[in-house]
Amino acid sequence: MHRHFVSTNISERANQARRVLARNPVSAVALLFIPALTALAVLAPWIAPFDPDATDLDHVLQGPAGLHWFGTDQVGRDVFSRVLVAARLDLAIAVSAVLLSFVIGTVIGGAAAFYGGLPDRLIGRLTDVLMTFPLFVVAMAMVAALGNSIQSIVLASAVVNLPFFVRLARSEISVLRSQQFVEAARAGGNSEWQILFDFMIPNALPTLTVQVSTGLGWAVLNAASLSFIGLGIRPPTAEWGIMVAEGAANILSGFWWLAIFPATALTLTVLSFNLLGDGLRDVIDVRTRR
Amino acid sequence: MTRNSEIWRFILRRLLGTLPLLFGVGVFTFVLVRVLPGDPAAYYATGPMATHEEIAQVRTTLGLDRPLPEQLARYFKDISVGDLGRSLVTGQRVSSDLRERFPASFELTFVAMLLALTLSIPLGIAAAVRAGSWIDHLIRFVGTLGVSMPAFVAGVVFIFIFYFTLGLTPEPIDRIDPFMIKPPAVTGLLLIDCLLAGDIPAFLSSLARLFLPALTMAIIVIAPLMRMTRASMIAVLSSDFIRTARAAGMGWWKVYVSYGLRNALLPVLTTIGLVVSSQLGANVVVEKVFAWPGVGSYALNSLLASDYAPVQGYVLLMACVYVVINTAVDILYALVDPRVRIN
Asked: Exposed, middle or buried, A265 (CB in 10 Å: 0-12/13-18/19+)?
């Protein structure tokens, strides 16, 4: 089946990717970091040297050394194991949130642009407003309303990302609408629904991938910020935002490792997703359309 | 029609255009408080010992037994006259609580924006002038790093470096040294009040306490501002009049700043409107890290204490600030650039 009519062929794109990575080694590092991080997150329960929740009151607030690579916290838990296990939770939240907003946003934005008319204009106007609205305030209010659970953090992070996917899908589909292969598909007797889902959305996917990468970074940042201010996930769960919040209380006594290690893990993760997004954007070359 | 009356009509139309947004936010906050856990009538009744009759009576006085559309209409009537209800934690009217704390948040956000602009515009120009060089790459990488660092991480790291390790900044709590006498509140903006009172030590103390939170809040918006300055400068620098100015042997200040920057600033202006809203969101986090007595920390403390009227008031206030800033940016844009077609 040859459905991907407008995308350039694979080897050409691979060449482009090689050129971009050679010119931009930082993106290449990000490209390596993310699979490594994902592997660590998935394997965390098996490779963590200590039980992340086990307290050890004989060894509290010990600096990074020997057995405890990242030191221990105020109740003697191993900071390294907690940072590892937290990666699992934070990435799981980000992936589910972005998956939700990707699917819902693509369907809403794609259908709006495909059918046009008043609903399309209204949705366009609404996303324009929402995109620039202080969305973190909305996320905060949502978590408060939905209660402190992982589900409400996922939902809030999905809502924060949603307008970006709607807008991108909408602009992509409205460009594709006037392409000849769509006319051809219609002439070939495909239903409207098939044209949208089998022909147009697959061709919009490369561009949407860029947004997935940036969105993952943003979802991690959003989820960690919410739990940092005390909403959503509660202590003693190992989560980067909570760990930084707990560590911040100890940093003024000189116990820097409690906050700095989870903070670094968090920043590196968001940074990698952003750099990967930038790199992908160069490969797919949608810079001008953004 | 003269240009002047055209501009007034434009302003009026822009303001009318924001009404649907404000209406939407009003409905959102209305629904929010009804979804939030807890029965408002039980809260407003005398306490946990209130009888069913008392609660029912409070429900009648608050109008909670009326149909929802009527409650919504009543809610809009209340907020249109500035009645946002009462905070259970402070016992004050939410509107007066917000008014008291807003200057602290405003001062912080405004200084942060100034700081961000003074850092991002020169960096953006440098990246554009040396586009493709290692300076360009370095500046862009640092910008991405800044945007990837959550505000609370930046805040905690800055406290660790500047306060704990280097001892350069004062204790990261509150707006002024607790042993100093606050100047009489005229504007509520501490820096200006200190100057009005002629109290230089108090001014320096509050400036020192403002520095780290403002820097933290500046970091998150430097990258978008810098990227826009860079992109816009690159476009301008490739135009004919710059080539002519260079050929005429003019100095770099004249070429890059007088001619280049002035023409490159318009897109940056639009970006300011966009990034202010991410600052409004970050307010809550930064105010928590630095124990800053602004509206963000007020809303957060109320939220954690299940006191929802302040949260509602805060969301409405943020929506209004957002509308005012974006309308102001649009109007400025139309005023600055005569090419912008007002119709």
From this structure: buried
**Hey, are the CB atoms on B144 and A135 less than 8 Å from each other?**
no
- Taking only Cα atoms into account, the Rg of chain B, rounded to an integer number of angstroms, comes to 24
Q: How far is CA B266 from the centre of its chain?
A: 20
For B29, the closest chain A residue by CA position comes to A141
**Could you tell me if B254 and B245 are in contact, meaning their C-beta atoms sit under 8 angstroms apart?**
yes
pLDDT digits (tens, 9 = 90+) for B63-79: 777 777 888 888 888 88
Quick one: pLDDT band at residue A253, thresholds 50, 70, 90? confident
Cross-chain Cβ contact A245/B152 below 8 Å: yes
pLDDT per residue as tens digits for the range A194-215: 888 888 888 888 888 888 998 9
Dig out the tokens for B16 from the structure.
């009318």
* Residue A167 token pair: 């807008």
Rounded-to-10 torsion of CA B181, B185, B186, B188: 110
Measured CA to CA, the distance from residue B156 to residue A261 in angstroms comes to 12
Cβ count within 10 A of residue A147 = 12
Nearest CA among B128, B121, B133, B333 for reference residue B236? B128
| ipTM for the whole complex | 0.82
Phi, psi of B178 (to 5 degrees): -65, -20
Are the C-beta atoms of B282 and B214 separated by less than 8 Å? Answer: no
Q: Does A140 touch chain B (CB under 8 A)?
A: yes
* Subunit contact B148:A274, Cβ cutoff 8 A: yes
Average confidence (pLDDT) over A96-102? 95
User: Could you give the CA distance from residue B138 to residue B130 in angstroms, rounded to a whole number?
Assistant: 11
CA dist B234 and B221 (Å) reads: 20
Question: pTM higher than 0.80 for the full model?
Answer: yes
